[in-house]
Amino acid sequence: MSVATRPRSGVGAATTPGRDERPPAFPVPWGTVVPLALVLALADTFWVVALRGAVGAVERTQQPFASWALDSLLVLPLTTLAVLLAVVSARGLLRTGLRWRFLTTWSLIAALATAAGVTHLVVSASYDFVLESRNNTMMSTSSGMCTTPDCLVRMQHATLGLQLRALAYGAVLLLVTNLVLTLVIATVRGRIDLAGRPSRPSRLRIPRHLSLPAAQPGDGDGLAPDVRLLLAAALAGAAVIHVAVAPEHLAEWPAAGVFFLVLALTELIVAGLLLGRSAGITWSTRLALTVLVSAVPLVVWAWSRAVGLPFGPSGGEREPVGASDVVTSLLELGTLVVAAACLRAGSRLRLLPARSATSRAVALLALAALTSLGLQTLGLGFGPM
């Protein structure tokens, strides 16, 4: 008895409709991306802390080792995102037949990692400039060292010029360091050529706890797993920043500190609902809660910055806009817009195709980097000094 077999390749090979034109999928080499990002983050942060000790504010130079460890941890998501984007970009260029694989991948990783390091350096230098400007103002008024009207202005210009020169030197140091370290790691491990052999095209496997629940009466419209994950990550990022600012607000006004803690807890609960499979809460209700928990802090923040809250220790006074406030508002605004769009889309959201693992990783790393940026800029205000 003969058994008919299906050809595996060549003419007559069976194909799946709609999938034969899909480009080959390349697995992300996390074993290379994460260690390389960690080394680059540690090295770049060393230069940032060193420059801070040379030209930064006195308040930030007391514990250099602790600052280096904390800043390295905060900048790690941004550096990992830069290395991952470099790998993805290099593969896209290499698919077009571009030669010089080693040089292309090496230069892209070093360039994007340097961009991440320079971003960290700019944030640190901006914070130092704000603190030093306040110190200049205090010293000029209390000690009487400035006797002419333009004395303070010249002091501020000199401080700004010093920080700009440190930025220029720092950018060069970061670029050289990243080029050398990437080359050394590539030589030692032999894994800088990340073009690799493509894996067989396959559909993205969604973890069971993130998959769409089975349709049940009264369950409402399902939500695409990628959208659920990104909404939950944005809410968690905003909650982390709210927890970080709570102690300062507790010291100034306990009611405000409690508000931020309750808000952070609520955001984490809603994030858990988005990822969970609770049978008693429809998806429309979860999206409505997402909209509510994002809109309330946005309204309070805009009110306090526009006209000032009518209650509290500084009732009726406008509060200055800080960089961490802007970051948190961006996370909340993005969550609000996406959740409202999902409510409007309804059941059509089930038709959204699952994105690749690389696309999901890039989106999550971008949210983590934005959250870490908000944590780095805590206390950096651009309002009245």
Could you tell me how far the N terminus lies from the C terminus, measured between alpha carbons in angstroms?
Answer: 90 Å
The whole-number mean of residue pLDDT values reads 78
Residue share in helix? 55-70%
Share in β-strands: under 5%
Number of alpha- plus pi-helical segments: 9
Order of helices and strands: HHHHHHHHH
Biggest β-sheet description: none
Q: Which segments are poorly predicted (pLDDT under 50) over 5 or more consecutive residues?
A: 1-25, 193-222, 380-385
Q: How many domains, as an integer?
A: 2
Shape: flat
3D structure, described in words:
This protein is mainly alpha-helical. It has 2 domains: 30-189, no CATH class; 218-376, no CATH class. 66% of the residues lie in helices and 0% in strands. It contains 9 helices and no strands. Helix 1 packs parallel to helix 3 and helix 7 (283-306) packs antiparallel against helix 8. The radius of gyration is 26 Å and the shape is flat.
List the SSEs and their pairings.
Blueprint: H1 30-55, H2 64-95, H3 101-142, H4 151-189, H5 225-252, H6 254-275, H7 283-306, H8 323-345, H9 357-376
